[in-house]
C-alpha cells in the first residue's frame, strides 16, 4: 500500500469533508502518496486504466454501502487492493474487515500489516450485494430514506404513504426456499458460507409496518422483525412482473425468474489485525 486513490461520498451516513481531510492527513503522516481523488457521485468513479495510469496500487473507500458497492463492481477485474473505511450508517462491510476500529487506526494497521482477503456477496443477474439484498414491496421505503437524506421534506409524507400502501399490499413470492411465507413484505438476503441466509418479513399490522418502515429508513434492516429465517443455496423471483430490490440499499428492478445466488470476490480487500 503506497499510492492511494481516495473515493469519498460526503452524503454518506458518517462521512463529511472534515473527516475526509483528517484521513488525508493520516496518509501524509504515514508517507503514503495520493494518486487521485473522487467525490462520488459528483465525480465519475475511476476505471482500471485510470488507476494504472496513475500508478495507484490501492483504492481507499470512505463512504456508505451503496458507494462501496458501485466502486467494487466497477473495479471487479482490477488487480489492485481495496481498503474499506467506515463512512456510512451501518458500516457492516468495514466491521467485517476491521472490527470497530476507527478510520485512522485502520489505515495505519493496513499500511503496517494488512492482508488481502476475499468477501462473499449476493448476486442476481449482473448485480451484487456485498452486505445484503432486500427484495419485495417493503423495499419502497428507500424513497423515504432518500428524501430525508436530501432534506426534501415536501416529498417525505407522500413517500411514506406510498411505501405504507405498498407494504400492506401483495407481498413477494420467492422460489427455492421451502418454508418461507407465501407472500412476504420483504426478504432480507445475505451471503452465508457458500449459500444464502434468508429472513422473510411478514408485517401485517400497524405496529409491525411502522417498525419495518423505520428500520428500512435508518438502514438497520436486520433489526426489522423477521418471522422466518432459512438457509438455501439459491432463490428465484416467482412473480410475473419485475420486483423492486435493494442491493446494499440501492434500487434495482429484478425480472421474473431471476436467480439469486451467492458468490465470492477475488482476494482484493485489505483486512487488518482487528478483522473477524
Give the gist of this structure.
The chain has 276 residues and is of the alpha+beta class. The protein contains 8 helices and 17 strands. The strands form 4 sheets. It has a 6-stranded antiparallel beta sheet with strand order 12-11-10-8-14-15, with no helix packed on it. Strands 7-6-16-13-9 form a 5-stranded antiparallel beta sheet, with no helix packed on it. The chain has a 4-stranded parallel beta sheet with strand order 2-1-3-4, sandwiched between helices.
Radius of gyration: 19 Å
Model regions low in confidence, pLDDT < 50 over at least 5 residues:
none
Helix content: 25-40%
Number of strands: 17
- How would you classify the quaternary structure? single chain
Q: SSE order, as H and E?
A: EHEHEHEHHEEEEHHEEEHEEEEEE
Q: Largest beta sheet: what is the strand line-up? A: 12-11-10-8-14-15
Q: Biggest β-sheet: count, sense, barrel?
A: 6 strands, antiparallel
Compute the number of helices. 8
Alpha carbon gap, first and last residue: 21 Å
Structural class: alpha+beta
Q: Average pLDDT value?
A: 83
- Quick one: overall form? elongated
Layout of SSEs?
Elements: E1 3-8, H1 17-29, E2 33-39, H2 48-53, E3 58-63, H3 65-74, E4 81-86, H4 92-98, H5 103-113, E5 115-117, E6 120-124, E7 127-129, E8 133-135, H6 142-149, H7 156-168, E9 174-175, E10 186-192, E11 195-201, H8 206-218, E12 228-232, E13 234-237, E14 243-247, E15 250-254, E16 259-264, E17 269-271
Parallel strand pairs: 1-2, 1-3, 3-4
Antiparallel strand pairs: 5-17, 6-7, 6-16, 8-10, 8-14, 9-13, 10-11, 11-12, 13-16, 14-15
Amino acid at each position: 500500500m503506497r499510492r492511494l486513490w481516495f473515493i469519498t461520498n460526503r452524503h454518506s451516513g458518517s462521512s463529511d469533508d472534515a473527516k475526509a481531510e483528517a484521513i488525508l492527513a493520516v496518509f501524509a503522516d504515514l508517507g503514503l502518496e495520493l494518486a487521485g481523488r473522487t467525490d462520488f457521485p459528483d465525480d465519475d468513479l475511476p476505471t482500471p486504466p485510470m488507476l494504472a495510469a496513475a500508478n495507484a496500487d490501492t483504492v481507499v473507500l470512505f463512504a456508505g454501502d451503496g458507494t462501496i458497492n458501485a466502486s467494487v463492481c466497477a473495479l471487479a477485474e482490477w488487480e489492485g487492493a481495496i481498503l474499506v473505511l467506515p463512512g456510512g450508517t451501518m458500516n457492516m462491510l468495514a466491521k467485517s474487515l476491521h472490527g470497530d476500529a476507527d478510520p485512522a487506526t485502520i489505515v495505519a494497521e493496513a499500511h503496517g500489516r494488512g492482508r488481502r482477503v476475499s468477501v462473499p456477496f449476493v448476486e442476481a443477474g449482473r448485480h451484487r450485494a456485498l452486505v445484503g439484498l432486500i427484495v419485495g414491496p417493503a423495499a419502497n421505503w428507500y424513497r423515504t430514506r432518500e428524501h430525508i437524506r436530501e432534506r426534501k421534506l415536501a416529498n417525505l409524507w407522500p413517500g411514506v404513504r406510498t411505501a405504507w400502501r405498498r407494504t400492506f399490499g401483495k407481498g413477494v413470492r420467492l422460489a427455492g426456499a421451502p418454508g418461507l411465507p407465501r407472500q412476504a413484505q420483504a426478504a432480507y438476503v445475505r451471503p452465508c458460507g457458500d449459500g444464502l441466509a434468508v429472513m422473510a418479513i411478514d408485517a401485517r399490522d400497524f405496529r409491525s409496518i411502522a417498525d419495518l418502515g423505520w428500520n428500512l429508513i435508518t438502514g438497520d434492516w436486520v433489526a426489522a422483525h423477521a418471522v422466518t429465517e432459512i438457509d438455501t443455496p439459491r432463490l428465484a423471483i416467482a412473480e410475473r412482473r419485475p420486483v423492486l430490490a435493494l442491493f446494499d440499499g440501492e434500487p434495482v428492478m429484478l425480472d421474473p425468474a431471476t436467480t439469486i445466488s451467492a458468490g465470492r470476490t477475488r482476494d482484493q480487500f485489505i483486512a487488518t489485525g482487528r478483522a473477524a
